[in-house]
Design a protein that fits this description.
The chain has 262 residues and is of the alpha+beta class. It is 32% helix and 29% strand. The strands form three sheets. It has a seven-stranded mixed beta sheet with strand order 3-4-5-6-7-8-9, with helices on both faces.
Length: 262
């Protein structure tokens, strides 16, 4: 179907509205207490993950039925590969924290056009922090425009696991360990400048990255995979090879140091 009727501002407004509604739904379920269990891969799942997923899928596809769909909690449909426009959703990023009664979780969604995110929403309902971005429209937390930090490596506040950050300690970074911080909230923090950089190794799913990438980019930063390649979404497999996010100059320095690490 042609995309002659595509209107980014309208699609972004739709995404923002529905992610906020879904976040409030999740907040209500969180306060009531929810059952949780483990998936076969060991990760947590709650009924709220599924409920939020069903809500977002129904609402977004009802409004844009010719768009594709990719979500952590929906069986993948390869028909999405034929779509130029794709909704990418993580109903609850940080399900482990959600299930345990912690605060480090969020509801997220992105719109991807031709493999690149063009609208993004990350909502943390317990603090009412709503991160959002639109291509060429800047990155925002509520009504505050976001800007990444940039500079050198000494004192760089960087979040990642000990395995990821240990090789960089010699260069003077200040490490922050993620605990239950989900990846999308780490990327939102890079965009807002409360972190200077984030690094995560290994395969990462598209739904863990797309919204965060647009926030970082629109805040003036750079985000790539571990090889320094631009991320392309809506491919077979829907995974990327790790993630490095920081201000552009700092990203270049970090990537160079990582390349030099034996």
């Amino acid at each position: 179907m042609p995309d002659a009727d595509f209107n980014l501002a309208q699609d972004a407004a739709l995404l923002f509205e529905k992610v906020r509604q879904a976040g409030l739904m999740a907040r209500d379920r969180f306060r009531a207490g929810v059952a949780s269990w483990h998936k076969p891969d060991g990760s947590f799942l709650t009924e709220t993950d599924r409920e939020v997923d069903r809500f977002l899928k129904a609402e977004l596809l009802a409004a844009r039925p010719h768009y594709g769909w990719l979500s952590e909690e929906t069986a993948d449909d390869p028909a999405r590969l034929q779509k130029r426009l794709l909704w990418i959703v993580d109903p609850i990023d940080g399900t482990r924290a959600f299930a345990r009664g912690g605060t480090e979780w969020c509801v997220t969604g992105a719109l991807v056009q031709d493999g690149a995110p063009v609208a993004a929403a990350i909502y943390r309902p317990l603090t009412d922090d709503f991160y959002h971005a639109m291509a060429a429209g800047g990155a925002w937390r509520n009504d505050t425009r976001l800007t990444v930090t940039d500079g050198g490596l000494p004192g760089c506040r960087m979040m990642g696991t000990r395995r990821a950050l240990t090789p960089l300690l010699v260069h003077g970074i200040t490490p922050e360990w993620p605990g239950e911080h989900p990846l999308l909230l780490r990327l939102a923090r890079v965009a807002e400048g409360s972190l200077d950089a984030a690094l995560s190794l290994g395969a990462k799913n598209d739904w863990d990255l797309a919204a965060g990438q647009l926030l970082v980019q629109e805040a003036g930063g750079r985000m790539t995979d571990m090889a320094g390649r631009a991320m392309v979404y809506n491919r077979i497999g829907s995974v990327q090879d790790g993630v490095l996010a920081a201000g552009a100059a700092r990203h270049a320095q970090l990537h160079q140091r990582l390349v030099e690490t034996p």
